[in-house]
Protein 1
Amino acid sequence: MSVITVSSEVKPGKSKEHSARNCFHCGEKIRNNEDYSHIIRGIRRAMCCPGCAAVAKTITELGLEDYYSRRTKVAIRPD
């Protein structure tokens, strides 16, 4: 089951593409008190906005989580 939550406590998994204060999906810095998160393969991942959380949820619901383990860099964020 996929869940999107808004939380002040984020416990992201380890990845060389992001840190605890960067979005797991796009890599953007997460503003204070605006942490969105989504559970991917049992690990709560920090997201910077509802858009990234929605995309992560869609990827998870479609069974495409390998996207995150196979990518070579975080997603490009549109201007």
Protein 2
Amino acid sequence: MSNDQNDIIERLKSVIDPELNKDIISLGFIKNVAVNAKQVNIDLNLTSPACPYLDDIIRDINKALEGYSVSINLGYAVY
């Protein structure tokens, strides 16, 4: 893993799921992080398409990654 990827992952640890009170890295919601200069592509898998906190989580991801252009690929875990 590159230093840039490590930096992004560390920043994403500040993003807390409001319902579960844990960060999105610990919860396993981030499946992939790709960094190319100041462009970051993230695969975000939530547990439900009806997640009431989706907008909050996306806002917090963008805030945590300020200075980067962020693209989020949204998916949902299948259990």
Protein 3
Amino acid sequence: MAVDIDLETLADWNNSYISMSAVHQYGHNYNRSRFGILTNPSSIEGNDTTRLANIYFGQDLAEGMLSYKIGKVDGVGE
């Protein structure tokens, strides 16, 4: 699930936005249960969980040539 808030429209703050997203991890290790292989193709295995992946403020400057984000940014998506 993801939510993007355009601060230019909402608060007249040029080229600014807030972004939030969450991830729900569920299921089981398919390789181990079906084939008896101990490795996981994504190298990620864990309990069923929901977590906040991203929450940050971002702004584009210099006609889009420079941008920055401040907050929690999940390294997988960047």
